[in-house]
Structures are given as C-alpha cells and as structure tokens.
Amino acid sequence: MPAPIATRKLHYGWIAAGLTFVTLLVAAGIRSAPGVMMVPLETEFGWSRVTISVAVSVNLILYGLMAPFAAAVMDRIGLRRTMALALAVLAVGVVATTAMSAPWHMVLLWGVVVGGGSGTIALVLGATVVSRWFDAYRGTVMGVLSAATATGQLVFLPQMAMAVESWGWRAAVLLIAGAAAILAPIIWIFMRDRPADLGLWPVGATEAPPAAVRAGNPAVAAIMALKDGLGSRDFRLLAGTFFVCGFSTNGLIGTHLIPACFDHGIPEVKAAGLLAVMGLFDLVGTTLSGWLSDRWDSRKLLFWYYGLRGVSLIFLDWAFGPDVFGLWLFAVFYGLDWIATVPPTVKLTTQAFGRERAGVMFGWIFAAHQVGAASAAFLAGWVRTDLGDYWLAFVTAGLACLAAAVMSLMIGRKGGAVPVAAPVAEGGAA
Question: Which of 77, 212, 320, 411 could serve as a FRET partner for 128 with CA atoms 20 to 30 Å apart?
C-alpha cells in the first residue's frame, strides 16, 4: 500500500464517519416511528397494543439478527453498496405501510421489510466504519456514531408527532421515507469502503494496515463467528448485558414511553418531546462515554451505566405526576445513559476477538440486544393490556439492569475469551 497522502487537510475518514452518522440518524428516525404511530393505529384500525407490539417485536428481532450477516455482507460487497441498498429498501418499505389495512400487513412491512433494512445499517455499521477508518479516536468516534441512533429521535420524533396531529400518521411515515430516499444516492456517490480505496491509511495510523480479506460466503462467515463466540465466556457476558440494554431502552422506553405518557394524560407531542430530550442528552452522554472508554476501564463504565439505569427505571412510575417535572428529570438522566453502553461494549468486543472480527462478533452481540428489545416491546404491551399499566414492566427492566451491572464486572477475567478462527477467504469453503 502506498504511503498516506500528507497534503490532504481533512482525512476522508471524517467524511466517511459523517456519512455514517447521517445514515444511522435516518435509520433511527424510521425505527422510532412506532412510538408515535401506536395510538393513531389503535384509534383508526381498532388494533390492540399487543397486536401492534407483535409487528414492533418482529422489527426489533430482525433489526438485531441482520447485524452479523450485514457485517459479513459489508466485507463481501462493501460499505457503500450495503448502505445505499438498505436505504432504498427502507424508503420503499416505509412508503408501502401507508396502504396497510390489516395486522399482517404491518407485520410484513414494518416487521420484516423495515426491520431487515434497518438492521443492515444498525450499530454494527458504526463499528465496522470505526475499525476500518480509525486507529486513533476510536472510542470517541464510536460514541458519536452510537449517539446518532438517539439523535434521530431528536430530529424526527417532534416533526412526526406534529405531522400525526395535523395530517395523520401517513404523513409522518412519508416524512421519514423521503429522508431515506434522498440519502441513498448521496451515499452511493460519496461513501468509500476503505482508506486504501483513496490511497490512505486509517486516521492516526503509523503503519499500513493488513490487506483486507473478503469473506467467501457471508452466511458461513457469520455462523462461524457465532460458533466461536458461544465458546467464549466473554461473548456470553457481553451478549447477556447487551440483551438487558435492548430490553430497557429500544423495546421498553423507545416503544412504550409515549403510550405510557398518553395513559397519564400527557399529549403525544409533549411525550415525543420527552424522547427528543433523551436524544439530545444521549448525544452528549454517549459521546462522553466514547471519550471515557478511550481512557478508563470499560467494565467499570458498564457497571455504573447499567446500575444507574436500573435505579431510574424502578422509580419511573413515580415520575408520572401532574406537573411532569419528575418525567422531564427522568428524560434528562435517562438520556445521558440511553446507549452510553455501546462504546465500552465495542471496545471490550475488540479486545476479546481482535480488530478483524470485531464487526461480525459485535453483530451477534447486537443481535442479543435486539432480542431483548423485542421481548420488552411485546411483554410491556401484554402487561399494559392485561394489568392496565406499565409499572411491572418498568420495575422488571430495572432489576434486570442491576443484574447486568454485576455481570459487567466479570467480563475480561482470565479464561473468558477463546481464540477465534480467521474469516473464510474468498474462494474458500462456502
């Protein structure tokens, strides 16, 4: 590989990171839409929250299960093609939801099509971009990219809520579909797969990185990574704690906070504003978490993140008061902690399994995150339908977070990780 171009003022890695940030932001806006759509769909079609939660659960499961295969596909066909294709699928799938009239339509479109498309450009995309384009600032950049998933709420949720209030839920989904349709060609034109495509080294690199090895068969590469991971205690601990992360964020708060606010007489626009505030403070909290993960023990960071999150969830039900001051306080505090767990988890994954396999291994760990999210989305809907409120769901998630805090301290102890096989080379076994 040639020496890096010294005259370039702005390394293209920062442009690649910026494009990735916008992609994750748009995907997050699409993924957060069910929180705004749930009450309007309930009103228009008479569907129960359990019925709607089934589609959301399918979406969240596919969003997670696509991640390890998406990482392998990125190795096979490149970041640019994968990102552009996924955005196009999202735009088509979201537009099609405006014509749905039966629950199975929502499961197919929002669950399968949108879930699969958004899963292809999930947080594993950020982990892959960081591992390819950056040797320095990895934790900080991963923190910013992780925060994009919450910033998407900040950008899109208030607008979607106002669109629902003024013109109906179909106008809201067309808004986010348009954003995906506009972004797809921009990614196709400007995104690049690796620094080597431009004759560069990664940001902060002092020597040329090893030549890229393409996976022969993405499905085989992903399955082999799972097989290797299941033999590692660190993998099981990371997957277990990230399961709780998804259970307590996307699945519970991301899906059910707005309906819970509505149950307490808080209008949808104000409730969407709460999630937007969480997105604003998560941008700060997750970026700071990335900076801290470059400097402090990631296990201890996870201990505090999960522990404080658990306490806040246990006391959430008391925050729904007439002055909603406690709820705004919860939004600020919880926002700082929303996905601050991502940068330390990515760092611990890289330490356990190496730079080359960090993307696909984190993909499986992220799959556990989304299984947790899907479980919470369905169970919280069932609890609300059966018991009439969300109290039990909030307390259960809080206790699970306290357990995850303890598990975090066990990661990385002697004997936790195991060697993993190299990716299948192109032309090898398939």
Answer: 411
pLDDT in tens, 367-418: 888 789 888 888 888 888 888 888 899 999 999 999 999 999 999 876 554 4
Q: How far lies 184's CA from each of 4, 81, 96, 160, 177, in Å? A: 29, 10, 18, 21, 11
6-44 pLDDT per residue, tens? 445 789 999 999 999 999 989 888 877 877 787 888 888
Within-domain flag for 428: no
Assigned domain for 281 exists: yes
Closest CA to 391 of 318, 317, 311, 327: 317
Report yes or no on 287 lying in a domain.
yes
Phi, psi of 215 (to 5 degrees): -70, 135
Distance between CA atoms of residues 120 and 129, nearest Å: 13
Cα distance between residue 401 and residue 406, in whole Å: 9
Domain that holds residue 111: 12-193+217-408
CA angle 413, 414, 418 (to 5 degrees): 100
CA distance 177 to 380: 28
CB 68 within 8 A of CB 123: no
| CA 418/CA 234 separation, integer angstroms | 9
Q: Taking each helix axis from N to C terminus, what angle separates 358-387 and 123-133, rounded to the nearest 10 degrees?
A: 160
* Number of compact structural domains in the chain: 1
The DSSP result for 276-313, as a single string, is HHHHHHHHHHHHHHHHHHTTS-HHHHHHHHHHHHHHHH
How many CA within 13 A on the CB side of residue 20? 31
Please indicate, yes or no, if residue 211 is contained in any of the structural domains.
no
CB 269 within 8 A of CB 161: yes
pLDDT class of 77 with cuts at 50, 70, 90: confident
The CA-based diameter of the chain, rounded to the nearest angstrom, is 65
| CATH number of the domain encompassing residue 382 | 1.20.1250.20
The pLDDT of residue 153 is 67
* Helix, strand, coil tally for the chain in percent (to 5): 75, 0, 20
CB 411 within 8 A of CB 237: yes
Outline where DSSP puts E strands in 22-175. none
Three-state DSSP class for 215? strand
pTM of the model: 0.69
111-129 pLDDT, tens digit each: 899 988 888 887 778 888 8
pLDDT band at 154 (very low <50, low <70, confident <90, very high): low
Highest mean pLDDT out of 137-141, 166-170, 291-295: 166-170
